[in-house]
């Protein structure tokens, strides 16, 4: 009986931690929260190798304020690795604002 209760608590804790990790991986933060360049340098190639695509679109911004859309966090890591860039996940509104501004100038 005691083993069953312990198992339930451990199992429930693992489920909650798993859900929290999923939510945290998609928390959008302000670009101002980043200080460029970040130290230590993030190994985006290693992160890309370990990442599993979930295809939740995200907005990324580099140290120059250039924004672009990515298919998901893994796509951002792969792009940073391949192109030697430092894009960071920012609020989706940043990319929407840039797109709206570009449309107004056309």
Automatic annotation (TrEMBL):
Signal sequence coordinates: 1-25
Residue runs in coiled coils: none
Top-level division of the source organism's lineage: Eukaryota
Gene3D superfamilies: 3.30.60.30
Listed SUPFAM superfamilies: Kazal-type serine protease inhibitors
Kazal-like domain mapped to chain residues: 39-97
Keywords, ordered alphabetically: Signal
Protein name: Kazal-like domain-containing protein
Species per Swiss-Prot/TrEMBL record: Manduca sexta (Tobacco hawkmoth)
């Amino acid at each position: 009986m005691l083993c069953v209760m312990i198992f339930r608590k451990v199992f429930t804790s693992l489920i909650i931690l798993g859900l929290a990790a999923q939510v945290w991986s998609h928390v959008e933060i302000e670009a101002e929260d980043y200080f460029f360049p970040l130290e230590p340098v993030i190994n985006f190639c290693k992160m890309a190798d370990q990442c599993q695509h979930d295809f939740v679109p995200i907005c990324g911004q580099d140290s120059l304020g250039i924004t672009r859309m990515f298919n998901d966090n893994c796509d951002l890591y792969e792009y940073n690795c391949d192109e030697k860039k430092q894009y960071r996940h920012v609020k989706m509104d940043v990319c929407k604002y840039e797109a709206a501004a570009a449309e107004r100038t056309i």
